[in-house]
Design a protein that fits this description.
This protein is mainly alpha-helical. The chain has a domain of 53 residues. Helices cover 65% and strands 0% of the residues. The longest helix has 18 residues. The protein is globular and about 35 Å long.
Length: 77
């Protein structure tokens, strides 16, 4: 079954997954690394992510949601 990337659908389907911000970020990083098949240390990941640190917070959060949904869709979710 394909997953919907519509914002309202994502919000509805994720409302039962509530974490504090630190845990939420760690869970997201872990899941995305699993989907991508990556085995990186935190330092390696930080170095690869460095070019994106200048993005405005709103744009960064939107990009993360978009990329996570695209990855899930590509993985057949």
């Amino acid at each position: 079954m394909a997953i919907s990337c519509e914002p309202a659908d994502l919000a509805e389907n994720s409302k039962c997954f509530c974490y504090d911000k630190n845990t939420e970020g760690a869970v997201l990083i872990y899941l995305l690394m699993q989907i991508a098949g990556l085995d990186l240390t935190a330092s390696e990941l930080a170095a690869l992510a460095a070019p994106y640190t200048g993005m405005p917070k709103d744009a960064k959060e939107s990009a993360i949601v978009y990329l996570a949904c695209a990855a899930a869709s590509a993985a057949g979710a």
